[in-house]
Design goal:
2 copies of one chain form a homodimer.
Chain A lengths: L2 H11 L3 E5 L16 H13 L5 E5 L1 H4 L3 H13 L5 E8 L3 H14 L4 E4 L5 H8 L5 E7 L12 E2 L12 E2 H10 L7 E5 L7 H7 L5 E3 L9 H8 L6 E5 L1 H4 L7 H20 L1
Parallel strand pairs in A: 1-2, 1-10, 2-3, 3-4, 4-5, 5-8, 8-9, 9-10
Antiparallel strand pairs in A: 6-7
């Protein structure tokens, strides 16, 4: 899916919601436990219940890997079930030396056929490049994350660089990451993860990367504000995929979980329509 | 396995070699292709051929994930096959917000029962903490990696921090990571990845973290020197697990791959004996 197609889909549906399938097996409602694969059945019903209110689904690989190979099968079935109209993200936060990253890229772009995968920047360019080399696929690099630990390194100040071609002003690590990585890809194959809880930084982030899409987690259970993000970070192509996971999929722990998910997703959809004007 | 047990095993066997099972399915010798699971059969023969010359095996998850759920099954069978005498590492480079990292920790420490997992530091303390909370398990945090991209962020200079309790001197990002993360765990549950190609930095690294074990990739195909690493970074408890992957497992692409692996692993073993004195 191209950037133009993604923007067109957001404009036509009136939503930039991404539903996060962080499906913790221990939180599946009891009445689904008799299914052969309760996590898949849960995901299937959540997808049916939310697809009219979102443009993307994000599968958090951790919640599948904790069940081993069986969990990977559930992930494969789930990504297959997502309607082809929707943008699919493997929230995997991978990254390793070049020949290893190439295998991760194949895992998520070929074997599982996701549209996008999240990647960690610590190891630098050759750890990210193999993901960018896939045409019609997206790399979503961690920029400024939503968790408290963002202060440990991401928000620490870098010294001006003395090397030619590197930034000469003081800046934070995540700003260095955004500036540097923006040169590795383009707004047509690279997005950034910017946490919704980091609203103070959204204006600065948008100044650094005016044309990129952001995947924004942290609305809902983590407390970020959809209005503030939208006011500060929307660009001419919308440029935002706002993710909610637990707030949608575990809106109810009872037999009405799917209806409850529809209700919460529809609420985001309604608010997003107003932000889209 | 405790640090004392690991050191004792290294002293008694005379080797601190870790064999990396970066088993690229496209590089398996032809004569194994008739097996139901050629990658598992390859790994099984490699383990038999090298176990007397190493103390650890490192499974690089990327090379299994690129085959999907089937690859995860192969990984499960492989880790089960590794003798219980040997230290097992999932080279997975995971890291995410706390409740997600907790699922990754369960995936590798419980479901797959590895002794250790590699973790990426970018997202800070709460992304690492869930791994450290497992008793009798090891977190191996990326410090200074062996790849060219290390220069993009890891080797960039941080400004002195103005915050109380944070470092006040100029230092490189990876040094900040080592110092900060050393306070999250102890030398009994935390190791660092330090690339063999970064030999210039080994003395500085050892000064910062005198008691920690290092997992050292980059010997062999990437060109790092075993002698230089051992001279500069061995501590009183040895403190080194030196990994070789492709140089051992793909020493021959023919029917003699296992004998060739034995030969290369035995060569490292012999050299390590002399470094252990």
């Amino acid at each position: 899916m191209t950037r133009q197609q993604l923007t067109a889909m957001i404009r036509s549906t009136g939503t930039y919601l991404c539903v996060g399938l962080d499906t913790d097996p221990s939180k599946i409602p009891d009445h689904l436990q008799s299914h052969a694969d309760p996590v898949y059945e849960f995901n299937r019903q959540i997808i049916d219940a939310t697809k009219d209110h979102c443009v993307a689904y994000k599968i958090n690989t951790a919640f599948y890997e904790s069940s081993g190979a069986k969990g990977w099968e559930t992930m494969e079935k789930t990504v297959d079930y997502i309607p082809s109209t929707h943008f699919t993200i493997a929230d995997a936060k991978r990254g390793d030396i070049g020949n290893t990253s190439a295998h991760y890229a194949r895992a998520f772009f070929e074997t599982l056929n996701f549209d996008a995968v999240t990647v960690a920047p610590y190891m630098g360019e050759d750890s990210v490049r193999p993901f960018l080399e896939f045409t019609d696929k997206w790399t979503i690099l961690l920029g400024l994350t939503s968790n408290p630990g963002a202060k440990d390194f991401e928000l620490q100040k870098m010294a001006p660089s003395a090397e030619p071609g590197r930034p000469t002003s003081e800046e934070l690590l995540y700003e260095r990451v955004l500036k540097t990585a923006a040169g590795w890809g383009t707004p047509d194959n690279l997005m950034f993860v910017i946490g919704a809880t980091q609203a103070d930084s959204f204006t600065a982030v948008r100044r650094l990367t005016p044309d990129h899409f952001y995947l924004v987690p942290g609305v809902g259970a983590q407390g970020g504000s959809l209005q503030e993000i939208s006011d500060k970070a929307m660009n001419k192509d919308v440029g935002l995929l706002v993710n909610a996971s637990r707030a949608v999929i575990f809106a109810s722990s009872g037999e009405d979980f799917a209806e409850a998910a529809t209700r919460v997703a529809a609420g985001y959809h309604q608010e997003m329509k107003t932000h889209l004007g």
